[in-house]
Amino acid sequence: MPGGAPVARSGRSRLINARLLPPRRGPLRTLFSGAPWRATGYLLGYLFTGTALFAVSTAAVLAGFVFGQLTLTLVLTVGSAWVVRCCAQVERGRAALVDEPIPYTYQEVTEPGVAGHLKARCTDPAFFRDCAYLILLFPALLLLDVLTLLIWLPLLVGVSLPLWFWGVDSRQPDGSYHTGMRLGRSDGTGVGVWIDSWPAALIAAAVFFVLALYVSRLVVAAARLHLTVAHTLLRPPTDPLARAKRVLMEPGPLSLTSAGPVGGPTTLEGHSS
């Protein structure tokens, strides 16, 4: 299977060096590159896709467990494992938003009949890794994505304040309406700033822009962390002997010698009398 994005080898970072999420860039270059926007799409898509896959996978696993208790429904149990595999394939393909699709490997069916399919599907370690990603880690990954987007998306709205603040009418504490909006408590109590003029809107947008410069790197880091978890569980495990096998398969020094017979004295050669 072709390898995915390489894992960082440095001790400081073990995150996937995603092809479309370069890890080392200045804040200004990061914001004006495509990295934070791809990361936003990847994280935002998980809120909907991940939730749907979690529901479908959980229902499939529970149905497979129930059906597995009945001999006549072994086919449905195999179908439940196939549903989980399809859900994992969706997540592997979704990685293309920020990197290459995640490779995969499943056990082949070697025994005939439904029992052979059931053994191959339900004893495959890849099946349990799929369940761990789709079901067990769903709350943690959802929390990561939601918290990141709750910090990032309001900053983008703040940067665009000069484009739309004049079209908003905010209600005052006395019941009247005033053009503009208030950053803070909308009821006028507590700390807050009114944005009701062009200078105020431009200053606020500049502050949000400076904050967005640095938060954009946080968004990229969150997407890379999410992608690292997906790679860890959804791709085939690394073979610890892969390097040794590659060395054995490569041509060695003996392959540089001629394959012909070893030279030696011929029948015409000998001692002169």
Task: Outline the fold blueprint.
Elements: H1 27-31, H2 35-67, H3 74-94, H4 113-122, H5 125-136, H6 138-159, H7 161-164, E1 169-171, E2 177-179, E3 181-184, E4 192-195, H8 198-234, H9 242-249
Antiparallel strand pairs: 1-2, 3-4
Helix pairs in contact: 2-3, 2-6, 2-8, 3-4, 3-5, 5-8, 6-8
List keywords for this structure.
two-stranded antiparallel sheet; disordered C terminus; disordered N terminus; 56% helix; two-stranded antiparallel ribbon; mainly alpha
Give a quick precis of the structure.
This protein is mainly alpha-helical. Helices cover 56% and strands 5% of the residues.
Determine the number of helices (DSSP H or I, runs of at least 4 residues): 9
Strands in their spatial order, largest beta sheet: 1-2
Computed over alpha carbons, the radius of gyration is: 30 Å
* Low-pLDDT windows of residues: 1-13, 254-259, 266-273
The fraction of residues assigned to DSSP E strands is 5-15%
Major beta-sheet overview: 2 strands, antiparallel
How many separate domains make up the residues? 1
State the total count of DSSP E strands.
4
Q: Give the overall shape.
A: elongated
